[in-house]
Amino acid sequence: MIIKQETESKPIDQFPDGSTVRIIHLNAGKGALSKLCALGLVPGTIVRVFINGKGPLKLRFRDTDLVIGRKFAEKILVRLVDDND
Amino acid sequence: MKQTDQKITIALTGNPNSGKTTLFNTLTGSRQHVGNYPGITVEKKEGLVESAGYVLHFVDLPGTYSLTAYSQEELVARNFMVRENPDLVVDVVNAASLERNLYLAVQILELGAPLVLVLNMMDEVRKKGMTLDTGLLEQRMGCRVVETVARQGKGKKELIDTIISLNSRKEDFKSPLEISYGPDLDPALKEMEDIIRENAFLTDIYPARWVALKYLESDEEIISEGRRKSPDTSTRLEDVTNKVADHCLKTLKTYPEAVIADYRYGFISSLLKDVVTRDQQRQRIEMSDQLDKFLTHRLLGPLFMIFVLYMVYSLTFLVGDIPLSLIEDFFGWMGEVVRRTMPDGLLQSLVASGIIDGVGAVLSFVPLLMIIFFCIAFLEDSGYMARVAYMLDRVFRYFGLHGCSIMPFIVSGGIAGGCAVPGIMAARTLRSPKEKLATVLTAPFMTCGAKLPIFLLLAGVFFPANQALALFLITLLAWASALLVSKLLRATIIRGAATPFVMELPPYRLPTLQGLLIHTWERTWQYIKKAGTIILAISILIWAAMTFPQLPDNGFSDEEIQGVIAERDFRGLNTAPGFPANTDDITLEEEQIELVLAERQLAHSYAGRMGTFLEPVTSWAGFDWRINISLVGGFAAKEVIISTLGTAYSLEAGEEDDPTSLSDHIRQDPDWDTKRAVSLIIFVLLYAPCFVAVVAIARESGAWRWAVFAMVFNTVFAFGFSTAVYQTLKLFI
Lengths: 85, 733
Fold this sequence. Notes:
The structure holds two protein chains of two kinds. Chain A is of the alpha+beta class.
């Protein structure tokens, strides 16, 4: 999976349902950043994109389901990881 | 409380959806609402438990994920722990999601607060095929850990015993937890701690390292507190902070907050190593996921949602109609008894027309409200309400609102029967001031429990076959008005970009009967209390306004009486059914004179004069002076509308009349027709919020001008709408 790991990080809303991704960077201002951190979305976290349709994304991480608006999701830069990562 | 009992104050804290409120209910049996939606608990709730000679005083703090200064809830929780010095802080965590829930616990330990960790929802942990080594966790955290299943009351006794046993050993807690924040932050933290200690800077309230951390996190509350305390020291700390922030941005391309959060999670991971073990064989498909496939399906989800909302109404009408008419009959009978037994005069009039009719009209709707409240509690506690917010986010975004606006709307009466006051309070969870303002200003359009009685009454009289449908349409109109007005406001006077939507989606849970009953009873009791106090007072006030000034006592000359009779004859009153044709009957003459005199008296009173004064304008919308009186009263509280109509009709009918209900009065009155009913429904739905809600708007928006705006704008909007509908209907009916 070396090729995948070397690809540039992309906003999480660009990944389809069922993707497993790792947070690389939070491109957010202080308020949004603090909120994301408190919810457990810190860099390094493995997140499963559960539903990515037209509305908010449904994410699963750290044994929690979270729905997050698309504007907010754009701030979360992630990289695809293998399921066995 | 006995004199000898020792009081222990315990702050109950935890993430939203951790079952904190359920535990609070289980412990104290208090009247307290429990919801699955994050941020339901905004107010401070307290409850007492007596055990073994101690009185445990629990304070239920708002559910929070963190202790930053970014939201009111977090500030409330943090300030309580620091300033009120509770004997213990009990942090309730969802054990099935331990890693994320410990984020708050770690911060409490860093604050140096005396922590007891409650691992709640242990049943879900087992269902998920996980096992927890509680002893190991206790050892690593350095605090007591108690396992509970709050829904079933399990672990309640252990928790109480632990609290009592720890209370005598408070000195054990004194040293705050210190976590390493890595090579980039640790030296700066050390430097700042030294400065803080040297100057005894805020150390009387907070641990030194914690203050340093908050400076690094750019915590506005602590920094401004620091500046007030000692501007020089604060400047030195801010200098260090700026240096670190620059360094983080250059080398790590991030803010210190992110580094801090990262290390906290790292610390939690090390805490949990070998504490949590997962059964890898058991790849269960979660029930919630299965349900969500259907319930949040792109097409079926919204359809099901509409079905659920409609079922709530139908259930309310089917079941609620029976006790409703029983209570109505009871108050009618009571009025009759008073009129028969008490001597004629002002006191009898006060009791029968002011008190019994007024409060009776309000209380008779209690059964309906209880059913609606029960349904809402079920939807909230089951986790379905959070899905509704999730599905509606796109719609709300379009109208310049937030997915979280659903809660204020629903509490205000988005599902008929709420109250705008807690609804407006629920808007506190909205972080963006603009979406919050738009929500707060439009939530009062919803069908609150106080408007409901007048809708139920008019629907019952004019649409007896389609009551449920009528109520459903009224609610749809409320939503349409709220959304469109919000869109208008967000495009004009409250312009600004949308705030990001983020919300936890709790798993579906079967609500506990205790939780549902407590919730239902709490809301109903609030309604009854309001009816019994504010409403009663206003009812009496309005009775007085309708009774005084009195017509000159027996000040009617023969000519006048003849004139009155002529007027009555002209109106054709003596041909009304039930009146014998024999006009020589003296008793009958007196009765009819009484009737007309009562009406003249009402027109002569303060309220009547005001109603008459407004009539030329309000007649455009089909309202006469009697309706005007009740609508003016409705500014004070919407319940008053119906009680005033009750009073007005009762007074007008005179003392000898049958104790028939208000709906019968309206049904028989030729002035009442469908177009007036529709116009009145629209006006009552949309016009100025009651003064309690107005006060809430002022408080939540932080400015009285928004409260005044809500009163004026809503009334003008409602009147324009009602007039348009009334005049249109006039063309067709």
